User: What shape does this take?
Amino acid sequence: MIETLEIGGLVIPVQAAGDIRQTYEQLGAVATLRMRDGTARRQTVWRKIGTRINGAGQVPPGLAGIDYDVPLTLACVAARSVQSTGNVITVPSARRTGSGYAPTGFAVVNGRYVSTPLSLVGNVATLTTIVGAQGYGVRYWPQISVYADFSDDVQQMGASWSWQIVAEEV
Assistant: This one.
C-alpha cells in the first residue's frame, strides 16, 4: 500500500511527497492547579490534535490554490495507535476508512508487537487474544477537520520542492 496524504479533497502525488514526515501534538486548554496543601489537580476544558507535515519531492505538491481560511478535511499519512491491557479497545471515530486504511490490531508479547486480527463494530475493536500478551493495541490513520497553513520552498538548481502544512483540528 502506498500511503497518501489528502487535504481539501486533493491527493498529494507520490512525486511531490517522496520524502514525507508527519508529527502530531496534543493541543488543549489544560492547566495543572495546586491546592493549598500542594496536591496537584488537572483541569481540562478541551483537547484537539495539532499536526505538522513536511514533504519534499521532484514536483510541487499543487496545494497553493486551496482556500486555507475554511475548515479542510485532512486524511493523514501517519498512523496513530491506542493501547490497552485488554483486547477490547475503542478506536477514535475520526479516522480514514478508505481502502488500505482499515485499523489493524497488535498484541504486546515479551516486549514486542505481534500482529493479531480484529473485528470492528462501530468504533469498538475486539482483538483476537494471544497467550502471554501483556496488552493490545489498534493502529489507525486519522481523518480530521482542520484549519491549515501551507508553505513551500523551491530549489531551482536541484529541481526539488519542499513544503510544509501546519494544521489544528477544528
